[in-house]
Amino acid sequence: MDNRVIYSVVVPLYNEELVVNASYRRLKKVMDTTKEKYEIIFINDGSKDNTRKMAEDICSADENIKLVNFSRNFGHQAAITAGMDLALGDAIIVIDADLQDPPEVMLTMIEKWKEGYEVVYGKRTKREGETFFKKFTAKMYYRFLKSMTNVDVPVDTGDFRLIDRKVCDALVALPEKNRYVRGLVSWVGYKQTYVEFERQERFAGETKYPLKKMIKLACDGITSLSYKPLVVAGYLGALAFLIGMVSIFISIIKDIIYNTEFVSFMMVIEINLMMFGITLGCIGILGQYIGRIFDESKGRPIYIIDSTVNYGASEKKYKISN
Ligand code: UDP
Ligand code: MG
């Protein structure tokens, strides 16, 4: 039999001891139906619970399962990046471990890939078991992002998607550190389509995306695809300048006509506060970009690999770092 891997399923894991076994069983069941050779790559993103041991046990019983252990928690996007770097397949599927993305949808993605599409992303028509806050902010964010960039980023999609080897190679060649993978997939282009699915409730455990990580991801999305916020900062500055000029002009006229003080003491403080707010806000926007430029200039790797399992002869190669 041809030993070439056709499908690589990339599964990031962060403190997922409650789902890793169920996830493996369900993914295996679905991928076995393809009757083609596949690998499942678990990326253990510095889990502090029992995830590593459980994934290692799965690997020792099934050689199609590979495990990459990071030296610490580098984040979901870094984990996906590592999966793509190490994937051997002709098609690479990224899926969350918690079974919120139904593994059965992978088969529909594979059908589309066989029709000739090079990117098949999962579009969420419904999201079960997530808070109103998360659903609302996500909905608003994806629309905001779309309006901020010229790249056609599809709304209501996460990282659950299939990409062709060509697309994977193009992504791997992008050197940037603060990665917003779903945006980069849109940016590289190729023939893209989508399949619709209903996002399920998490199989077990809690979300590993607290608000802080969500905000970081959201900022990465905008800064990696657009510099419009900087332009908006410039407009705000111009607007503030204009308001200032007009109010000075009115003050002078009023002073001349009525010989009184036009602007009250409180108003001076309020206007100053507003102007400070605008200035600091703009510096904050600048900071978002400068921080990322700083990250890029340091040239550190996106992740560091501590160890791998089931990589055979190439195991050593991946041991130090990417
Ligand atoms: N994840 C990760 N590193 C992190 C956070 C999350 O590898 O720092 C993984 C997590 O184990 C899961 C996927 O990324 O497989 C998506 O995370 P989660 O389901 O918690 O996010 P949500 O669906 O709540 O947005
Ligand atoms: Mg989830």
Which structural class matches the secondary elements?
alpha/beta
Strand order of the largest sheet: 7-5-6-4-1-2-3-8
Quote the average pLDDT.
Answer: 87
Helix content: 40-55%
The helix-strand sequence is EHEHEHEHEHEHHEHHHE
How would you sum up the major sheet?
8 strands, mixed
Q: Would you identify the regions where 5 or more consecutive residues have pLDDT less than 50?
A: none
Q: How many individual β-strands? A: 8
Specify the overall morphology: elongated
What's the architecture of the largest domain in CATH terms? Answer: Alpha-Beta Complex
What assembly state would you assign to the polypeptide chains in this entry?
A: single chain
If you consult CATH, what is the topology of the largest domain? Answer: Spore Coat Polysaccharide Biosynthesis Protein SpsA, Chain A
Radius of gyration: 25 Å
Going by CATH, the homologous superfamily of the largest domain would be Spore Coat Polysaccharide Biosynthesis Protein SpsA, Chain A
**How much of the polypeptide forms β-strand, as a percent range?**
15-25%
* Distinct small-molecule ligands in the complex: uridine-5'-diphosphate, magnesium ion
Distance between the termini: 31 Å
- The CATH class of the largest domain is identified as Alpha Beta
Q: How many distinct helices? A: 10
Q: How many domain regions?
A: 2
Subcellular location: Cell membrane
Keywords: Cell membrane, Glycosyltransferase, Membrane, Transferase, Transmembrane, Transmembrane helix
Transmembrane segments: 230-253, 265-290
Protein name: Glycosyltransferase YkcC
